[in-house]
Specification:
This protein has 120 residues and is an alpha+beta fold. It folds into two domains: 69 residues; 48 residues, no CATH class. 53% of the residues lie in helices and 13% in strands. It is built from two helices and three strands, in the order H-E-E-E-H. A hairpin with a 5-residue loop joins strand 1 and strand 2.
């Protein structure tokens, strides 16, 4: 196979891979938690020792505004999970890193080939 042919195939592969990367990246972007539809009422201590009841998204940990005062039956509610958002963010970063790593090898091969072509 000629160098021109293999270079053309590499360019074709990179362009196809770029489109696949774009699609996966867009899917990842669109899968972020933005609506907070899956939530529970949770309790938390506020300044002065009082208890406040707030909605917490069970997917990303976001605590929504408009808390309410507690009532006696709220003692059975779970405490707000203060680490939920950090776990969600770490998970999102890991997902993005996996997508980038999946396509990095093709990009590296392309850049190396271009460098060799320009050097020689």
């Amino acid at each position: 196979m000629s160098t021109t042919n293999s270079y053309a195939q590499l360019v074709s592969r990179l362009l196809r891979t770029s489109a696949e990367f774009r699609d996966e990246h867009n899917h990842w972007m669109n899968s972020a938690c933005t609506t907070h539809d899956d939530y529970d009422w949770r309790r938390r201590r506020i300044a002065g020792g009082g208890i406040q009841i707030a909605r917490q998204c069970l997917r990303c940990g976001h605590i929504m505004s408009n808390p309410r005062k507690h009532s006696p039956e709220d003692i059975y509610l779970d405490e707000i999970d203060c680490d939920l958002n950090a776990r969600y963010v770490a998970s999102r970063h890991a997902e993005l890193d996996a997508i980038v790593q999946k396509y990095a090898a093709t990009a590296h091969t392309f850049v190396s080939t271009i460098g060799r072509k320009l050097a020689g």
